[in-house]
Design goal:
Seven copies of one chain form a homoheptamer. Chain A is built from seven helices and ten strands. Chain A is globular. Chain A is an alpha+beta fold. The longest helix of chain A has 22 residues, at 82-103. Chain A starts with a helix and ends with a helix. The relative contact order of chain A is 0.20. Chain A has a single domain, classed as Aminohydrolase, N-terminal nucleophile (Ntn) domain (Glutamine Phosphoribosylpyrophosphate, subunit 1, domain 1, 4-Layer Sandwich), CATH 3.60.20.10. In chain A, α3 packs across α4 and α5 (169-179) packs across α6 (186-200). Chains in contact: A-B, A-D, B-C, C-E, D-F, E-G, F-G. Chains A and B meet through α4, β7 and α5 of A and α2 and α3 of B. Chains A, B, C, D, E, F, G: Belongs to the peptidase T1A family. Chains A, B, C, D, E, F, G: It comes from Picrophilus torridus (strain ATCC 700027 / DSM 9790 / JCM 10055 / NBRC 100828 / KAW 2/3). Chains A, B, C, D, E, F, G: Keywords: Cytoplasm, Proteasome.
Chain lengths: 234, 234, 234, 234, 234, 234, 234
């Protein structure tokens, strides 16, 4: 690291001379240390798949779950600082419920993602706080059909056919860039997602029992049981 | 970079000895990394045209849209930090709707642009925040006729016959400075805009399907379909 | 620049050992980069004249207007940071209208200028903000007769027979110091002002179509049309 | 320690270039100096066991108690800065009682732990405060059955079959990782916990009279008397 | 300047090791650059006299007036930063009027001076602001008789028989220290004051038309006309 | 002191790399300069004893009193910064009275001590303040029986059979660690306390007339008169 | 001054490694530059005596008065920064009157002194302010009898038989330590006080007309006239 850089990267609210926000870039490093996950659309729905790092047999498995339901038609998977992620997921749930209480219907998924991303953007512009060290994939169904977004520490959001976050993001993306086709069946999509994750995750044990959840048109989000997951592992 | 400069460019609220605000200049660097877009007036209306960077085939195209409608007679295109841009566009929409609710009619376009620019100026004068890393072109129709403004990170606004922002701004401007004529037809203006963008954008792929939107006297803003766009590409 | 100076000029709220406020002096440098303008009193009124920098033929001329009406008996011309100037002009207009709503009559011009100058002074005394990088000439008519003030980044105001701001301030002042006489006719005053501006402005193009506005006893402020301006240019 | 590190670890709200929050890591060092404690689930309940450092015979033993009841179905044991721990335990009790007053029933244990952890997370993201220098084990019974969580200075929470905090955490965890079996009886679990603590605590005196508390299905939390504890010590 | 000093003089709220407040001392330097003025008591009243710096014939003379009426029995003359002085004079006028509205009578002069001085003292004790760069002489009549005070950037006030502020303060004071007698007539006092000012002011032009104002028992404050002033100039 | 330390010990809200809070440790140094005092329980009550430093015969003795009644069943003795101690004792008295007003009965002593300690803990966690430079011994009677606590600058509290604070704390504690027996009579306890203090206090004069106060079951706190004290001094 | 010290003495809210608050110590230096004053009790009352520095014959003597009445049974004399002293004396007067309005009787003198001292203590503990650079002697009569306190920049208060502040404090105290006897008559006490002051004040002129005020049982505070003072000067 050069001296010039150090002068700009310790104060969140300043630009470097070439227009970069170092603190946001460093927060992305925290995400790059996180577990790998992906979202993938199929013909009539969208699935989330995440590796599951079993650090110790003493940890309850439910405690390792990376996929979180926001409501019964939207789920999210996160990578990065665990506590930051929890706070943002709760923020999403509360925003969603407030909308329901106020307007009688749940939020459009894009608006829900924007609400979370706006919160994250503010932490990159105001002094006295640090950015959130987290990326989030949101997946779900709304009146437009299956939706799949990611949101990064800068508060930037994009919509995808498939998308990955975490340590193995680059390998997963390279795999899907090559293999992904539209109009996959749910089955094909999940098998492709698992193959993509396997190509990226060095630690085999964390792919022994990955997490899977999906939603299909006309249904609610379904988190796969161990039995359902195991069908996809050979 | 000289030591003298470093002393002044890390604290947003101070002037340098020669009266410059370095943080604002650095925010402009963030804009210079953004995608290139332009606005161009024609006889009875105004058009916006933007390159569309397709970074990956896995990204949904709607997610790359740079042109945003504020309401049915005003649209904007942005360049720079994507999350900052979203926040400012939402700010514009909310200001616009509040005016409508309060006074029963939409804001004059110039006032709408000033409202956004005042917000941006404040972030260059108060401590504890950074400037917005974004430039915006606003185009639309009001009682005066077709209007076309830009607004930069300093909060400066100008009205133009044609204007460009983003990485290719200088080349586009040089092209239009030479070629632009008043009283172009809509067709001529769009063809000239595309030619100008092509002269500036190195990556050919991002001009494969540029975004186009325009508004004509007596009509509302129209975002071109792929078919409509493709008519202009040869 | 000496090391001793650097220790004091980066924090707005401190005096240097010799009792100077460097940030205010640096803000004046921003004004010295601005376009040149002047105000000049004549027998029964007062006029404002400004060079008009036409940076590009693509910019709408109305967008370059430096002379702004506050209400129909007061106008202002500014030099320095464009966004700061807009914010202060709006501040003046709102103060003026609030007075009218509250007391049924417009503010005395001197009080209006003081209101703006007090705002500017506060930004030189409180931490967490920078001074406004702008000087303003206010001209108008009130019960005392024609009035002509300037206000600088320190918030200092003075009343003048004629006054100049911007890059050419020193030359314009030297010219008028020598030539100005009281009881000029409006015509004579405007011709003298244009001559003074021409003596100061290096870039001839920006004197091709200067801005002129004036007010006479019993009338309201009049912004000159291109035809009216052109009468004075030979 | 390298110079590069020192630049980032004195300001809580910034990330280091590799995405770490040094202040949170240093707060964990405060925890590593604390007394060793553990939580362990058994067939129909969960137990907490803590060493008891008797620094002086002049201290009242009740004052050394590390195990604290939140209400009659949840208890906690802490390690790290003693005053920080007291403040957080009180925070948990008040949150719990507010829930009871508001909704007529006590909080779900997981929600109670999240409430505390959210408080701890905020102290890692906002300026002007330091993180809490404390880790907490929460144990209890709710409608799901026996629950066992820990919460660290980052605000991260996990659910466990057994878990340890404090100076001897690594040795205790290694011991339990090897020995722990599910469906232990309460008796077996407590004996295993004491053996694990003994393997980790160098100062024998602090294992002379360890603290033990447990809860079984259908009962409330029971803090062991000296007599009950002594049964387990040979 | 020594390094030891620099460590203490850039932060207003700290004492130096020898108990000094450097920022207050530096603010006094700003006063030492101001125009010279004095107050002088005579048998049945008190007068204020100030040099009048005519920087340019283009400035309106009223704009150079240093003597300001607070109400018809109190006047003030200031030296130092012009905008700071205006803000404090307005503060005095508003305090005075508020008292009148609240209690039906104007403030005792000493209380009025204290109100201003308390304001100035606060700016020497709180962070985030700088001291006022101004000294003020207040003169007037109240139930005690003629009163004459000064107030400096520290917020210190004293009552005098005669007193001076500004660049020539030391010479004027030395002159009056030697010459002043009690029970002068108004005429004698004004002549002595002008002589004292002349002994201190290097630039003769600024003594061509000094400002004079005085108040006598049973009368209100009177600002001298040019004719009245000229009687005293030979 | 090493450079590494200096980097962490000037900002209260940060941990050092080894998990220490230097500002709290430095505040304890202020306590180590204070006068020595102790609390000691006996069979049916508790006593406080303090040396009394007579710095000058011109000081009123009442002004030197270190033992303060909170109410008639609780007293406290402090060591460290005198003004900080007064503020905290007043805080304890007000908390105590508020409880009485609100609930009709005085606070449980443990809760009273916690209220004060929580206040002290907050000053170790928030920016912009320093910790209190004081340790306090609280002694009294409540429904549990005689109580004896200390509270240090970290906000840590412990309950004791006997405890000491101030410059001689280590010697007093060593003495009592060796000599203290439970079920002492009040007389024996006070004699032992005085002997312990004498073993620790170098300046004999400050043990000429120590302060003593005690409370017995069924009675209120009694501050010993000079005559009562003198009985114990040979 | 050593480098180690400089690291701690520029930020008010931190302790130095040896538990000192440098800013408070530096504020005491400001007091040591102040005029010398003393308070002295006699048989049935208490007196205040202060040197009177006559810097110039042009200053009104009333303006130099150091002894201030708080109400008719309490007076104070200050040393240090004059503006700080005025603010604190006004604070005392207002606290006193508020008590009277609220409870129908004036404050107990000790409580009045504590109110002022608490204010001073806060300015030693919170960031963004500096301590008051002032020491105050309060003297008066209340139901206990004659009272005499001092209060220093740390907010520490003590009660005395006699006490001194300002530049000559050490010599005055040494003198009185040797000479003071209880049950002096008012006359003896004042003569002793003047002798003590004379022993300490180098500049004879400031002892030409010292200030004296006293209060006796059953009477109100009496400020001595010049004639009364002169009786004590030979």
């Amino acid at each position: 690291m050069q001296q010039g850089q150090m002068a700009y990267d310790r104060a969140i609210t300043v630009f470097s001379p070439d227009g970069r926000l170092f603190q946001v870039e460093y927060a992305r490093e925290a995400v790059k240390k996180g577990s790998t996950a992906l979202g993938i659309k199929f013909k009539d729905g969208v699935a989330l798949i995440s590796e599951k790092k079993v650090r110790s047999r003493l940890v309850e498995k439910t405690s390792l779950e990376k996929i979180q339901l926001i409501d019964d038609r939207v789920a999210a998977v996160t990578s990065g600082l665990v506590a930051d992620a929890r706070v943002l997921i709760d923020f999403a749930r509360i925003s969603d419920q407030q909308e329901k209480v106020t307007y009688g219907s749940l939020m459009n998924i894009e608006n829900l993602v924007k609400r979370v991303a706006d919160q994250m953007q503010q932490y990159t512009q105001y002094g006295g706080v640090r950015p959130y060290g987290v990326s989030i994939i949101f997946a779900g169904l709304d009146s437009i059909g299956p939706r799949l977004f990611d949101c990064d520490p800068a508060g930037t959001i994009n919509e995808y056919k498939c998308v990955s976050i975490g340590a193995g993001k680059d390998q997963v993306t390279a795999y899907l860039e090559k293999e992904y086709k539209e109009n996959l069946s749910e089955d094909e999509a999940i098998r492709m997602g698992i193959a993509a994750l396997k190509s990226a995750v060095a630690d085999e044990s964390s792919m022994k029992e990955p997490e899977i959840a999906s939603i299909k048109m006309g249904e609610t989000f379904h988190v796969f049981t161990s039995e359902e997951v195991s069908k996809y592992l050979n």
